[in-house]
Amino acid sequence: MREEPALPPGARPPQPPADPVAAVESLLFVAEGAIEPAALAAALNLSAAQIEAALAELGQRSRARGIRLQRGDGVVQLISAPEFGPYVERFLGAASEQRLSSAALETLAIVAYQQPVTRMAIEAIRGVSCDRALATLRARDLIGEVGRAETVGRPVLYGTTLRFLEYFGLEQAGDLPPLPADA
Predict the structure, then answer these.
(1) What pTM, to 2 d.p., does this model score?
(2) Which residue in 98, 50, 101, 59 sits closest to 77, CA to CA?
Protein backbone atom coordinates (compact mmCIF):
# COMPACT_ATOMS: atom_id res chain seq x y z
CA MET A 1 0.00 0.00 0.00
CA ARG A 2 1.32 3.43 -0.94
CA GLU A 3 1.89 5.94 1.84
CA GLU A 4 0.61 9.46 1.42
CA PRO A 5 3.36 12.10 1.57
CA ALA A 6 3.51 13.90 4.89
CA LEU A 7 2.10 17.41 4.82
CA PRO A 8 3.87 20.26 6.58
CA PRO A 9 2.25 21.28 9.90
CA GLY A 10 -0.85 23.38 9.29
CA ALA A 11 -1.04 22.48 5.59
CA ARG A 12 -4.25 21.16 4.10
CA PRO A 13 -4.46 18.32 1.57
CA PRO A 14 -4.83 19.60 -2.00
CA GLN A 15 -8.37 20.19 -3.19
CA PRO A 16 -9.75 17.96 -5.95
CA PRO A 17 -9.21 19.47 -9.41
CA ALA A 18 -11.94 21.53 -11.04
CA ASP A 19 -11.62 19.42 -14.21
CA PRO A 20 -10.93 15.79 -13.19
CA VAL A 21 -10.72 14.60 -16.81
CA ALA A 22 -7.98 17.09 -17.69
CA ALA A 23 -6.17 16.31 -14.43
CA VAL A 24 -6.26 12.55 -15.11
CA GLU A 25 -5.01 13.14 -18.66
CA SER A 26 -2.16 15.26 -17.33
CA LEU A 27 -1.04 12.58 -14.87
CA LEU A 28 -1.26 9.82 -17.48
CA PHE A 29 0.76 11.95 -19.87
CA VAL A 30 3.69 12.28 -17.44
CA ALA A 31 3.50 8.73 -16.10
CA GLU A 32 6.38 6.49 -17.16
CA GLY A 33 4.01 3.64 -17.97
CA ALA A 34 0.73 2.10 -16.99
CA ILE A 35 -0.58 3.05 -13.54
CA GLU A 36 -3.38 1.93 -11.27
CA PRO A 37 -6.51 4.09 -11.05
CA ALA A 38 -6.05 4.11 -7.25
CA ALA A 39 -2.79 6.05 -7.72
CA LEU A 40 -4.70 8.65 -9.75
CA ALA A 41 -7.37 8.86 -7.05
CA ALA A 42 -4.76 9.41 -4.34
CA ALA A 43 -2.86 12.04 -6.32
CA LEU A 44 -5.99 13.98 -7.24
CA ASN A 45 -7.87 13.54 -3.96
CA LEU A 46 -10.80 11.94 -5.81
CA SER A 47 -12.88 8.83 -5.17
CA ALA A 48 -12.50 5.66 -7.19
CA ALA A 49 -15.91 6.35 -8.77
CA GLN A 50 -14.83 9.86 -9.80
CA ILE A 51 -11.64 8.46 -11.35
CA GLU A 52 -13.60 5.81 -13.27
CA ALA A 53 -15.97 8.49 -14.58
CA ALA A 54 -13.02 10.68 -15.60
CA LEU A 55 -11.31 7.73 -17.32
CA ALA A 56 -14.50 6.87 -19.22
CA GLU A 57 -14.86 10.49 -20.37
CA LEU A 58 -11.16 10.71 -21.30
CA GLY A 59 -11.44 7.47 -23.29
CA GLN A 60 -14.43 8.87 -25.17
CA ARG A 61 -12.77 12.25 -25.86
CA SER A 62 -9.48 10.72 -27.00
CA ARG A 63 -11.14 8.71 -29.79
CA ALA A 64 -11.27 11.90 -31.87
CA ARG A 65 -7.58 12.64 -31.30
CA GLY A 66 -4.16 11.06 -31.82
CA ILE A 67 -4.11 9.24 -28.48
CA ARG A 68 -6.08 6.45 -26.87
CA LEU A 69 -6.70 5.37 -23.30
CA GLN A 70 -5.58 1.78 -22.87
CA ARG A 71 -6.80 -0.37 -19.97
CA GLY A 72 -5.70 -3.80 -18.87
CA ASP A 73 -4.76 -5.82 -15.78
CA GLY A 74 -6.04 -3.10 -13.43
CA VAL A 75 -3.89 -0.34 -14.94
CA VAL A 76 -4.37 2.47 -17.47
CA GLN A 77 -2.06 4.37 -19.80
CA LEU A 78 -2.08 6.73 -22.75
CA ILE A 79 -0.93 5.35 -26.11
CA SER A 80 -0.74 6.72 -29.62
CA ALA A 81 -3.73 6.02 -31.84
CA PRO A 82 -3.21 2.78 -33.81
CA GLU A 83 -4.08 4.40 -37.13
CA PHE A 84 -0.98 6.60 -36.77
CA GLY A 85 1.29 3.65 -35.93
CA PRO A 86 3.24 3.69 -39.21
CA TYR A 87 4.04 7.38 -38.74
CA VAL A 88 5.05 6.92 -35.12
CA GLU A 89 7.27 3.95 -36.06
CA ARG A 90 8.90 5.95 -38.83
CA PHE A 91 9.42 8.95 -36.54
CA LEU A 92 10.95 6.76 -33.83
CA GLY A 93 12.97 4.69 -36.29
CA ALA A 94 11.20 1.50 -35.23
CA ALA A 95 10.02 0.56 -38.72
CA SER A 96 12.97 -1.79 -39.10
CA GLU A 97 11.78 -3.96 -36.19
CA GLN A 98 11.67 -7.58 -37.30
CA ARG A 99 8.18 -8.94 -37.95
CA LEU A 100 6.76 -11.95 -36.14
CA SER A 101 7.00 -15.32 -37.88
CA SER A 102 3.83 -17.13 -38.86
CA ALA A 103 4.49 -19.68 -36.08
CA ALA A 104 4.77 -16.86 -33.53
CA LEU A 105 1.60 -15.22 -34.85
CA GLU A 106 -0.31 -18.51 -34.69
CA THR A 107 0.88 -19.06 -31.14
CA LEU A 108 0.01 -15.49 -30.18
CA ALA A 109 -3.50 -15.87 -31.61
CA ILE A 110 -4.05 -19.02 -29.57
CA VAL A 111 -2.87 -17.28 -26.39
CA ALA A 112 -4.99 -14.20 -27.11
CA TYR A 113 -8.22 -16.14 -27.68
CA GLN A 114 -7.71 -19.00 -25.21
CA GLN A 115 -5.98 -17.21 -22.32
CA PRO A 116 -5.04 -18.29 -19.81
CA VAL A 117 -3.56 -21.26 -21.66
CA THR A 118 -0.74 -23.77 -21.10
CA ARG A 119 2.06 -24.63 -23.52
CA MET A 120 0.63 -28.15 -23.87
CA ALA A 121 -2.78 -26.77 -24.88
CA ILE A 122 -1.15 -24.49 -27.47
CA GLU A 123 0.82 -27.43 -28.88
CA ALA A 124 -2.34 -29.56 -29.00
CA ILE A 125 -4.03 -26.89 -31.12
CA ARG A 126 -1.03 -26.19 -33.39
CA GLY A 127 0.14 -29.80 -33.59
CA VAL A 128 3.82 -28.84 -33.21
CA SER A 129 6.20 -27.66 -30.52
CA CYS A 130 5.83 -23.99 -29.63
CA ASP A 131 8.85 -23.46 -27.34
CA ARG A 132 10.63 -21.14 -29.78
CA ALA A 133 7.49 -19.12 -30.56
CA LEU A 134 6.71 -18.74 -26.84
CA ALA A 135 10.28 -17.58 -26.18
CA THR A 136 10.02 -14.99 -28.97
CA LEU A 137 6.67 -13.71 -27.73
CA ARG A 138 7.91 -13.48 -24.14
CA ALA A 139 11.09 -11.68 -25.25
CA ARG A 140 8.95 -9.10 -27.05
CA ASP A 141 6.69 -8.81 -23.99
CA LEU A 142 3.61 -9.76 -25.99
CA ILE A 143 2.74 -12.62 -23.63
CA GLY A 144 3.63 -13.40 -20.06
CA GLU A 145 3.06 -15.84 -17.26
CA VAL A 146 -0.30 -15.14 -15.64
CA GLY A 147 -0.40 -18.03 -13.20
CA ARG A 148 -0.16 -21.79 -12.82
CA ALA A 149 -2.76 -24.39 -13.75
CA GLU A 150 -4.28 -26.38 -10.91
CA THR A 151 -3.30 -29.69 -12.55
CA VAL A 152 -0.48 -32.19 -12.19
CA GLY A 153 2.86 -30.44 -12.49
CA ARG A 154 1.22 -26.99 -12.19
CA PRO A 155 2.14 -25.85 -15.72
CA VAL A 156 2.57 -22.18 -16.56
CA LEU A 157 -0.50 -20.34 -17.84
CA TYR A 158 0.17 -17.72 -20.52
CA GLY A 159 -1.80 -14.58 -21.28
CA THR A 160 -1.33 -11.41 -23.29
CA THR A 161 0.27 -8.23 -21.93
CA LEU A 162 -0.34 -4.50 -22.25
CA ARG A 163 2.41 -4.49 -24.89
CA PHE A 164 0.26 -6.93 -26.90
CA LEU A 165 -2.65 -4.48 -26.78
CA GLU A 166 -0.35 -1.66 -27.85
CA TYR A 167 1.24 -3.71 -30.65
CA PHE A 168 -2.14 -4.52 -32.18
CA GLY A 169 -3.78 -1.16 -31.47
CA LEU A 170 -6.32 -2.47 -28.98
CA GLU A 171 -7.61 -0.54 -25.99
CA GLN A 172 -8.49 -3.70 -24.06
CA ALA A 173 -8.46 -7.48 -24.55
CA GLY A 174 -12.21 -7.46 -25.19
CA ASP A 175 -11.57 -5.50 -28.41
CA LEU A 176 -10.24 -8.60 -30.19
CA PRO A 177 -12.33 -9.35 -33.27
CA PRO A 178 -14.63 -12.36 -32.86
CA LEU A 179 -13.48 -15.67 -34.24
CA PRO A 180 -15.29 -16.93 -37.35
CA ALA A 181 -18.14 -19.30 -36.58
CA ASP A 182 -16.40 -22.20 -38.34
CA ALA A 183 -13.16 -21.81 -36.33
Answers:
(1) 0.58
(2) 59
